[in-house]
Design goal:
alpha+beta; 3 domains; Porin; 16-stranded antiparallel beta barrel
């Protein structure tokens, strides 16, 4: 019905224009009527034979003026009719265009409403509040996996599995000079768990630029040491950090207070922390002694124009670790069936003497590191990044080979050394590839008993990681193959050898 009415409204002006042309034609006929009548009056009648010839009289001035006026009136009426017809046609065209635009607007509005209905609901809150996060789900195949359980911990030894590696949700609030952040993590690495991995409150002491001259932070935040500890999990190509970083700074986060800032290309950060990171295997996020770790980094962050960017820095840490004491024990009578006959024989009884209690004690630890990173924008390919880090440490391992010099024979220190170097290259907008080699020795002075003799041995872990990522918007799919070398195995003669532990993994990641 609406289309029919629109057609009628569109045709009405055209009908009016046609009626106006009819009226114009009648007016033209009426205007010409005096001239026709005058012509009829002046036409001579045929004369009879012998009668005199009548001569046509010449038109008078009044007659000429009347004819000229009639022609002018006809032209005026014709021009007016033509103008009305053109205006009517333009109005019809304009109305049709307006109807078309209205129909297009209604269709676009319906499309936008449908898209909004399908989209996720928006989150509103205080001004300055923002939410972000990411999800990383893995499928891993590990060469050392076994269908067994660890006899000491009861944990399964199978690592061929699907797992939720990280599901992070971060809420940030920024209202100068105050800011705060809360970050939660859900994962299934050791069974399903949800935990706090970041919670901090900060105040800027000066400046409103993105890099203030000084900003004080308290809470749970990343340890300001080196490059890879501070690198975001959502930006790193490789699935995990290097072995060295996972041993010395497990979990990356620790409780404490920090001051950081920068000026032009200079950067600094210094913190006082408990010294037990969230991934520590002894007292995670707790502090068994009164001593605190002092850690800091001084570096540069310079832009190389359109070529790229360069980072570099020196980091240091000093603190005191904790050795857990042991209670006193009584003397114990022991029977050892030396000949394995199942019966008691003289000389098979021994006494294990009691041991006096040993109090808990502290030991010193430190770390010194140097890191560098250069990113270049390469024509046709994209950004290429070369970076690396080297660390010297003493008694700092808190995850892989936990350092406790007071529990070793001779109470010697454990000297750790490690490094990594990595190259990552973009191949256009959607592909990224990279390679990383890392090496970590948790005890540079380790020895091994071979043939009743102590000989130097190596505890070094080495790994070559090859990774490739396919990117599409805020999503990534990463494939990585790790070639791992270690000295955890034993050959047929009982000498240390490599324990096969290569890993292939696929990760699906979505950021928001």
């Amino acid at each position: 019905m609406r289309h029919t009415r629109g057609t009628e409204r569109g045709s009405a002006p055209l009908a009016l224009a046609r009626r106006h042309r009819v009226v114009t034609s009648l007016s033209l006929a009426w205007a010409l009527q005096p001239s026709v009548l005058l012509a009829q009056e002046t036409v001579p009648t045929p004369a009879s034979p012998g009668s005199p010839i009548l001569v046509k009289p010449e038109p008078t001035t009044v007659d000429l003026l009347a004819q000229e006026r009639a022609r002018a009136e006809v032209e005026r009426i014709a021009l007016r009719a033509e103008l009305i017809e053109k205006l009517t046609a333009e109005r019809v065209e304009r109305e049709a265009r307006e109807k078309q635009l209205a129909a297009e607007y209604e269709a676009l509005l319906e499309k936008r409403l449908a898209e909004a209905a399908k989209a996720s609901p928006s989150v509103s809150g205080s001004q300055g509040l923002s939410l972000s996060g990411f999800v990383q789900a893995d499928m891993a195949i590990r060469q050392s996996s076994e269908d067994q359980v660890n006899s000491s911990t009861g944990a399964p030894l199978n690592e061929n599995r699907f797992l939720l590696r990280r599901a992070r949700l971060r809420a940030s609030y920024d209202s100068l000079p105050w800011s705060a952040a809360l970050e939660l993590d859900a994962n299934t690495v050791n069974g399903g768990q949800v935990r706090v991995v970041g919670a901090e409150a900060s105040v800027r002491l000066s400046g409103t630029s993105p890099i203030p001259l000084a900003m004080v932070t308290v809470g749970l935040f990343k340890i300001p040491f080196g490059w890879e500890v501070l690198e975001s999990d959502r930006d790193r190509l490789f699935l995990e950090r290097s072995t060295m970083i996972r041993a010395l700074f497990p979990g990356e986060y620790d409780l404490g207070a920090r001051v950081q800032g920068g000026w032009q290309f200079l950067r600094y950060a210094m913190a006082v922390q408990n010294g037990e990171p969230i991934g520590s295997k002894t007292f995670p996020l707790r502090d068994p002694n009164q001593s605190k770790d002092v850690v800091g980094r001084v570096g540069i962050d310079a832009v190389l124009g359109s070529l790229g960017r360069i980072h570099g820095g020196v980091s240091a840490l000093y603190g005191r670790g904790f050795h857990k004491g042991s209670p006193a024990t009584k003397a114990t009578l022991m029977w050892k069936d030396a000949n394995e006959d199942g019966s008691f024989q003289p000389g098979e009884l021994t006494v294990a003497p009691g041991v006096a209690a040993s109090p808990s004690a502290n030991f010193s630890r430190f770390g010194l590191g140097v890191d560098a990173r250069i990113a270049l924008n390469l024509p046709l390919l994209g950004q290429g990044v070369l970076y690396g880090e080297i660390i010297w440490a003493k008694n700092l391992d808190r995850a892989i080979m936990i350092a406790d010099p007071l529990s070793l024979i001779g109470r010697r220190d454990l000297r750790e050394f490690g490094f990594y170097v990595a190259l990552v290259q973009d191949l256009g907008r959607h592909v990224q590839i990279g390679a990383r080699f890392d090496s970590y020795n948790p005890d540079r002075d380790s020895t091994d008993l071979q043939g009743a003799q102590l000989v130097p041995s190596s505890m070094t872990y080495r790994s070559l990681s090859l990774a490739a990522a396919l990117r599409a918007g805020s999503a990534r799919m990463i494939l990585e193959y790790d070639i791992n070398r270690n000295n955890l195995g034993r050959d047929a003669s009982g000498l240390p050898t490599n324990l096969a532990d290569n890993v292939f993994a696929i990760r699906s990641e979505v950021k928001f």
